[in-house]
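Entry:
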Amino acid sequence: MKEIRLHGRGGLGCVKAAEVLVYAAVKGGKFGNSIPFFGFERQGAPVTAFLKISDKPIRAKNRVINPDIVVVLDPTIMNAVNVYEGIKGNGTLILNTRQDVKDLNIPESVSTVAVVDATAISLEVLGKSITNTVMLGAFCKVTGLADLELVAEKVEELWGKKNVEALKKGFEAVQIHHIQFEKRGQHHEI
């Protein structure tokens, strides 16, 4: 079972993104569940969504405390929330950022970092900074846990063809880096 935590802000579609991933996983023959956590329910407030995807039935319907994968839809959320909290060893981090990986302060528990400028893509394709579909595309490529075409099917149903374009651009644009730590605080790609 893979446990996943998504971080975003109200209005960016974080909770819906988790639901789309579960839909695609289940339609693709896996098991999945999603659990939203809102905190303050207002536009721009931090939002966290939790999901689990497995080849076996999932009994527990609780929040994810120690995720295998963390997805950050809005880079500014990292100033308000510790997105790295509890991430398992050999964890995967998928970030919406313009920063170079070597400029990020990646914890040693993370072995794969994927970056995509989802904000720029969403502005280009959708005309607004709603990054969930771009990040769904990145998630599909990085993890292989949800089939891109099944995600695209649900994305089109919910938000239309432009969002499918954003999804596919996220899939194409994401850059995947495998990190190896040599000394505390220093890392390089392998």
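The helical segments are 14-27, 118-126, 132-143, 148-159, 161-173.
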